[in-house]
Amino acid sequence: MIFISHVSAEEQPCSSQALQTLYDPKIWVTNQSGMDLSEAALGNLRFTVATVWVKSKRRQAAAAFPQKLVDGRQTVHTKGGKYNAHAPTGLAFSRETFAKLTPGPFLQAHLQQPEPIRPNGRSLHAFRTPTIHTGSLSHSNGSAVVRLGDTAVVCGVRAEILLAADIPHPPSEDTSEDDLVERLGLLVPNVELSTGCSPDHLPGNPPSTSAQALSYRVLSLMHTSNLIRPGDLSIQYMEPASDDDLPDEGPKTVTKAFWTLYIDVLCIALDGNPFDAAWAAVISALKSTRLPRAWWDPDREMVLCSPLANETHGLRLDDIPVASTFDVFSTGSALKQRSEAESWVLADPDGFEEGVCTETATVVVRSEDGDAGGITRLEKSGGGAIGKAAMGRCVHMAQQRWREWQGVLHGG
Amino acid sequence: MPLDTSTYALAHLRLDGRRWSELRRIHGQISTQAAADGSAYFEQGNTKILCTVTGPQEPKRGVEVEMNVAAFSGMDRKKRARGDKRVQEMQYTIASAFQSTIFTHLYPHSTITLNLHVLSQDGSLLACALNAATLALIDAGMPMSDYVSACTVASAPSSDQTLDEQDPLLDLNGLEEQELPFLTVGTSGEEGKVLVLLMETRVQVARLEAMVSVGLDGCRQIRGILDGVVREHGRKVLESRVS
């Protein structure tokens, strides 16, 4: 298993030209100061905090802040609005500090550009390219490692045998095949986030609600999309002809046992969008799963498996659904008119953007007539900024993503 | 049986074709995760461990180790309960080994956290964890007195009384660990100062010295491999900077 050490182009800081226009103080300060920050907008961005506090905490500023800051404010105003780069006019913060102090306005400043760009350098609708490696774990029937930017996820699939005789309430004969997997619980996914993958998920804690919700979403998506056919998971036995059979009845095939797949997803590093990464890891691991050849031994009354590697069989996954998650950054608040609020849809959010956005939407798409088409799942929660039109655009982006993934899934 | 003594005596080859003093295929990589302060991925045969380092952070707890054993890592699928005692003991052993190696006086009132993810287990778990943690700490730039390298040694498989013909086995895989009495030894430095020695099985006292000396030599070999991994990474970084 090889990890590609990741320094992608998308994580490079923006060019100085972009930064210069980005931190135009006119966004923050009322027109009185008219500061020209052109000489200050170099590679390492400086933002004079004096101006922020002047705007927001006029009354408290003079009392609460050190004298140096107050003097700086006065200097800015009296010298005809020109920023004096020589006098220490106040605290100046780097870009990273600005992002930590006020993440919302930081993101907003990026998005309000004529050419909107996100802090990680991606455009609004750009997804991160996934890297997938399968089959690296020797003890698992199937495994996959997926890296989506800085989010890294490992998935292992283990198969265990469930005897039909051990099922407490066997399904009736008329249960359709589609429901069998769900009724018997043959797929057991578990997404583990409490691994120290991010400061919010420290190990040793019980799974948080978001982790439990992730596990459930993966499970329900597997069931509703009928990802695995029960025929692939059943171990059948052809009963020999006996005297009780009617002459025109052929030998009966009985399902003696089922394979239960335990799908464990371990999050190694989290930088936003765990669902897409976990789903990608699950389908890649299932694609690479090899189940041993198993048969029912009537004499010993147990299931035997062949240890030979060339007698294993894989699972049939023809129509793989692909998930795409979107976050919405909105300037709306309870104090503002809804019509005044601006919102932007960000595809494949990273950790910083997820912390700032409240609204999220997930679209799962699978193929229809050979091309992307069918929507398998639509989820949306957290706000009202995405309407019909925006949702249509999200679905379109998800279909585009489906086409990109076909190359990765079938080629890699 | 995995270690049928008759076949071993014939050709002195173990089940996987190694001789008594041969290590398994070892592969290490550092800087695998950009988001963590230091990260490393280490494989010793089929035992695969990923380690990340974060810190220093408040409050003061010294070196903290969290080991996460994946459910799909062992021979049977088993979800480890929280507070599994065996894992806790290993965490404590690793933490105390690094407590004495890292210059923690340079980071007063801070905690350095090591997160180990066990992706696949096939013997020598503690040894592999110590090696992976060393690489991750070096990637994080933690000042340490020397590399901590570890390996496992088993006493000779035959119960024959003549000891001078029997060589202890170096670097065990899962099957050998279940069958033979073994110990894990972790050393620091070229001269082999022993930091960790863990043995949970019974062995004849007369064989112990030979086992420990073979273990020290194995640790020296592993130290050379770890050093090679770090230097290779450094060379790549320098080349990418210069060009």
Walk me through what this model shows:
Chain A: This is Ribosomal RNA-processing protein 43. The complex is a heterodimer of chains A (412) and B (243). With 412 residues, chain A is of the alpha+beta class. Chain A folds into three domains: 16-86, no CATH class; 103-123 and 323-411, no CATH class; 130-316, 2-Layer Sandwich (Ribosomal Protein S5, domain 2), CATH 3.30.230.70. Chain A has helices spanning 16-22, 49-56, 58-64, 67-78, 95-101, 103-111, 177-184, 209-224, 230-233, 274-287, 351-356, 388-411; strands at 47-48, 92-93, 130-134, 142-148, 151-163, 187-192, 234-238, 253-269, 290-291, 294-297, 302-305, 313-314, 322-330, 343-347, 359-368, 371-381. In chain A, strand 4 (142-148) and strand 5 form a beta hairpin. Chain A is elongated and about 90 Å long. Helix content of chain B is 34%, strand content 26%. In chain B, a hairpin with a 7-residue loop joins strand 1 and strand 2. In chain B, helix 3 packs parallel to helix 5. The termini of chain B are far apart. Chain A binds chain B through residues 1-3, 5-7, 11, 136-140, 143, 150, 152, 154, 156-158, 160, 190, 192, 195-196, 203-204, 206, 262, 264, 266, 268-269, 271, and chain B through 29, 31-36, 41, 43, 46, 48, 50, 52, 54, 66, 68, 70-75, 77, 79, 82, 113, 115, 117, 119-122.
